[in-house]
Amino acid sequence: AGTSRASFSEVNVLGTGRAVSVAGENIDGRNALSVSLMDPHLFDTRVRAAMLLRTFSDGRAWSWSARTRELSDRDVWRAAFTSAQERRLSNDSTTNTHIDITKRSDAFTVSRLVALSATAAYAVVGGVEYEYANEDVDQPGGSLSKNAVQRNFTAPVIGFSRRSRRFGTIDWLVPGQAPAELREGIEGEVVVGEGHDVFRNTRITHLDGWAGITELLGPNTVFTGDVWSSGYWSSDSVQNGTLRTSVALFHKATRGLWLFRGAWERIYNPDPDVFALSTIDPLLRLLAPASRLAERALSLTAERSIHMYSKEGRWVLDGALWVALSDRERSFDGIDVDPLNYRAVIVGIGVRQIRDQPTQSPIRLDIGRAVWRSGLPSRWIVSLSTIPWINVG
Predict the structure, then answer these.
(1) Which residues of 154-170 are buried (b: 16+ CB within 10 A; e: fewer)?
(2) What is the pLDDT of residues 275-308, one digit of tens each?
(3) I need a surface site. Which of 27, 179, 386, 390 has the fewest CB within 10 A?
(4) pLDDT by residue (tens digit) across 95-117?
(5) How deeply is 309 buried, as exposed, middle or buried, from its count of CB atoms within 10 A (0-12, 13-18, 19+)?
(6) CB neighbours of 209 closer than 8 A, spacing ≥ 6?
(7) How far is it, in rounded angstroms, from Cα 20 to Cα 190?
(8) Are 184 and 168 in contact (CB under 8 A)?
């Protein structure tokens, strides 16, 4: 379900701090081989550079980035250049599938610190972006959007960011752990670019934004919440739009934790190469593996974990009981022309390895079964996964 990866990495090549990784991946049903390189101090400067090459059976994708390393919240200037390209071409007459995709996106941005207080750092963002997309995709089954999408524009970019400088500590993720620092408060960044779309001879606006909050609600409870939005507006229409939100509540309990999570996502006129929602819901993907695209998705989870074995206050092995509600509306499976709705209430047990740092995601093994379902088969679920944890998402 979703993306899986097996990789071999060296994160300190010859003691230089550089990293190289080779991976075999499965990305939404497509096998890929990727090679990535990272240099934290390009040419002995403050620039951090990275490169990724990913090859598929029907094409390949590249991405490069170079950005100034963040030294502290007091950094007056930051700069970043990112570039991504993708080329896919395939025809399969047996399945009536035709894919012809050419994409490129480049962006150069500079961030300038404009205000610094005891609780937050504020910065303005400016730069320029270029985007080219020419996609023509015909596949079996229904779709939420047009089979062909074209965009070609260059636009100035302007935005605003806020970074929290307020910190708290927690010491109850792992028995006997040392207090771990947790960044609190509201953070976020919103950038907007507006240019002229050459293909359609019209103005186009590109929005990309995120805002999040983390708060300690007393000594034993942490709340996190996030909202993301991105998309393109032109001629009173939305293209490839996404709105996502998630919330989580972590509460210390007797010899363990209570965890409540919720995530919701809505997409608008997605590009034809968009297959899966980003909402983290491996359970429903296992029940309905052919559900590669849905207009709306909702996931709610309640979990109670019990500490079973801990190691030197660094990590703990927890057993857990959980219940989850999963819902996908207007989902397409690549076969049926009409959209389907999938819903299920799933209960199960699991094992987690939880670390003592809030930014380190746990490794999870879950076994469950749907006690109520609609439009789904009856089968057991076995899931090995990791999920965003406190302050990570």
Answers:
(1) ebebebbbbbbbeebeb
(2) 666 555 667 667 777 776 788 989 999 999 999 9
(3) 179
(4) 788 889 999 999 999 999 999 99
(5) exposed
(6) 188, 189, 190, 191, 228, 229, 230
(7) 32
(8) yes
